[in-house]
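anyone seen this seq b4? input:
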Amino acid sequence: MRNPWVALSALCACFFMVMLDSTIVTVAIPAMLEDLDATLNQVVWVNSVYLLANTVPLLVTGRLGDRFGPKRVLVVGLVVFLGASLWCGLSTSAGSLIAARAAQGLGAALMTPQTLAFISGLFPAERRTAPIAVWGGVAGVATIAGPVIGGVLVEHVGWPAIFLVNLPIGLVGLVLAVVLLPDWRPSGRVRFDGVGAALAAGGLGLVVFGLQNGQHYRWGTIVGPIGVLPVIGVGLLLVGGFVVWQRRPRPDPLVPPALAGVPNFGFANLVHAALGFATTGMFLPLVIYSQTVLGLDAVESAVLCLPMALAAGVAAVVASRVVARVGAKPLIITGLSGLAAGTAALAVLAVPGADPDDLVPGLVVAGIGIGLVFSPLTATATAGLPPGLVGAGSGVFNTSRQVGGVLGSATTGLLLQVGLGVAIPRAAEEYARKLPPRYADEFVRRITEAADSASQFGGEGPDVPADWSPSIAEHVRGLATDAFHLGFTTAARATLVLPVVVLVLGIICAAGLRTPAPVQGPGQHRGLPPEPVAP
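predicted toks r here
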């Protein structure tokens, strides 16, 4: 193409929606809990099922682009994504919304690998740094902008709008994709590893299901003789089977062994997984804390996240300009360290009576960290991909982030539920000492029951027996609110520690990255797809 930057605009529109929808749900959780009469576990699944459906097929959808051409797969994925977004916006129950989000994740999985494959084909190797920086910047900004945009829409329109907003963006992206993107055809037939896909899908699905629903089923029986721990165990066995299966020689595996020989690819994927885990995991406790404990509405909580989004955008621009001079590795390590430091600061500063402005410095540092990582990491991972591995490599690289994201959503949701089950009853026992003894036991029992249901987020607290005097009832409601705020804050702070630990592991992996070799000159470009064929 004479001007590949025009085509890049269509790719960025598609990728922005995919990344936006990975975090936009978190700010709407309190509204969904009330409107859909759902439990916290169900609403966490609204986010996790999207990440899971977006993750499992990526290894296959990356190869679909190699088989049928990236434009065709991207357009099909975009149509599925838009139809599912409409379904999400029209859903009236938690079950329907979860099913719609699964379909939406499938559409996202079809699109994501094609965006990176197109960049590798539209731009020669020596000119690829800038477009990858734009692609990575879109990912970073969209991830953080999700709660900001979602908060405005939830407050002024309603939670269905966070899904319906995809329709105008997606329609523009669809027109741009159909008109601007070249229709590359595959140069040879690509076979699909059905056994590998089944092992990966089944293993990851069972592990995530067990982790996220463990507290819901009290780590016991799910149905009949099937228990939570055996489900997780079977999932881990299937994941192990997938690894063993991929090591056996066969044509066109989901994870080609040749990727292991691409410089930095392995370490870059581990870092990408840690980044996905942290960025997804930190938003769940933070957004609910800001609305239920600090009393912010959806718009105010969105404004609270705005400095983080702006910092990420500025940092992404800076990273794209200085990466050639300072190298990708220092930027990646600095960014991960900044995100870890900002998240740790939030865990320290989050207290029941905190001033929301006190959280801004931690959010800004975390945003700068995210903005510094995405573009250099993507450039490092894709620098050495040969032509035949562009689709597979893009699928694996995006899968690593999504695996980290879905595990981050599942495990932080699990820790938050476990934390609420422990911290709120303890807080209730502490505040029960301020009541006459005959009211104390009933007070603790009712708050403990509320901690297991959506009523904990409704702002009204547990029901008070009708025979209690109005003065006692009012006093009890005030104490119940204080007990919940203390219990939830304790649980949220503990949950935020997990992303920090994972980011430290990511920094260790980033230390293993090597400085890439100089970019090859003209005539030696790598990563180019087959020549376009006229329709």
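The longest strand covers residues 221-223. Residues 420 and 488 are 6 Å apart (CA to CA). kinda curious what u guys think
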